[in-house]
Hints:
By secondary structure, the protein is mostly helical. It contains 13 helices and 6 strands.
Amino acid sequence: MIFIIFFLSLALAIILTPLVRSLAIKLNVVDVFGKSERKIHKKTTPLLGGLVIFLSFFIILFIAKQTAWWPAGKVLDKHLIGLFLAGSLLMIGGFLDDKYNLKPVQQLIWPILACLVVIISGIGIEYINNPFGTGYLHLDNIKIELIRLKGMPYYFTPWADLVTFFWLMILMYSTKLLDGLDGLVSGITVIGALVIAGLCFFTEFYQPDVGLMSLILAGAGLGFLFFNFHPAKIFLGEGGSLFAGFMLGSLAIISGSKVATTFLILGLAIIDLISVVIQRTVIERHSPFKGDKKHFHFRLLEIGFSHRLAVIFYWSIALIFGLTTLFLQTKGKIISLIILIVFGISLINLYSFRRKKC
């Protein structure tokens, strides 16, 4: 049944992608060639690809939930409703931005609302492993019941909610800024979802419900990737690039033990996000939302990588560090994270050295 779910999601994404592509063209929701200097695609390309992954994921999830073999677990109906509503907000905001080119502040509203919806639904980081010893660092010590619906309590936990909010925002903006090369983010989504599924099914943290959700996401991403790999026939768009980070971050939280895993998979993108924001705000003293070609993936192109090779290189880094989490405990993951940070800084220095040499 595990593989059936995966292939159903993949098949649905393959069916939906041409339909969504046609819809985007009809509505004139396209990325116009030559409109921006930082865009490297060679032709006008339809957007709204994130709608494919969103629809494929939730349609197959809904069907699977109705079957007798859906496993019991930590994922509650209120969590799924929260994910759906939050994802819907990202799709709406993404459509508006792709169509009308919203201002940065207007773009920011939708991921913020998505985070708040998910937190209200009860999805949150309640604890983290103590990296300096045994046990956990609890974030839900302060817990205030706000409301009770149908016997289900909804709590306000200040520290847990705050950490959850920033975790999801960082991941969403990491994948948003990463979405500069064909297939890069959709491929990272597939890798991340498969690694989380592997941890859910094949390690001591056995969580089949989260594992199945991860496989559905992986199938949806892979089906879309057939059309999104270079040269792309359709792009994810604003909503899709945000939805990728949002879902990986949310699945990591729900599973309770995959936050470090997701951090390693998206580590290079997160380092890239921090590096670019610092350079824009501290060094160049302009808006962090102003687009440019300072991201790692663009730098790979400048030092001689082909478009496809740069994407595959990025995928490989994510896969290698993601797979290490299948075999490492907390301290080992911290060491892997340090290695990844050093690697990221080395990439920045290599690029700077090559630029000076030229």
